[in-house]
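Question:
When you can, review this sequence-structure pair and walk me through the tokens.
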Amino acid sequence: MRLIVDGKPMEIDADPDMPLLWALRDIAGKTGPKFGCGIAMCGACTVHVGGVAVRSCSLPLGDVDGEVLTIEGLAQGGKLHPVQQAWLEEQVAQCGYCQAGQIMSAVALLDQVAEPSDADIDEAMAGNLCRCGTYPRIRAAIKKAAALKTAGI
């Protein structure tokens, strides 16, 4: 199976029923997406496929249609993505386990809504769970990232 992962073509020799998460972690060496629940409910495994945020723990490899982007592919040319930068500035992470999935969902939101309202953020991020409860920081970081993105930073 041929995939493009973080901009690089890759041959994946695996069962088409294997969840994308395990192909990314065990074959492609991408450790950003995490296993949390295995039933697409927690969001720790979120990646983009064809520009859409998806739960990689429940997406069979054979159903992948489009380029795969993991958190490892967000930073470009040594420069953090605005969401990653805002995450640092707002000190969002505590344990950090959910952060890759949170960030990937936030990126997908800002790709669709340049200046999201609290309701937009709540809706887009509802499927991403944070056991540390940093939801107010996540909201602040998304708003900061929107401003950074608008400013071209």
About this structure: The domain at 82-150 is CATH 1.10.150.120 (DNA polymerase; domain 1). The radius of gyration is 15 Å.
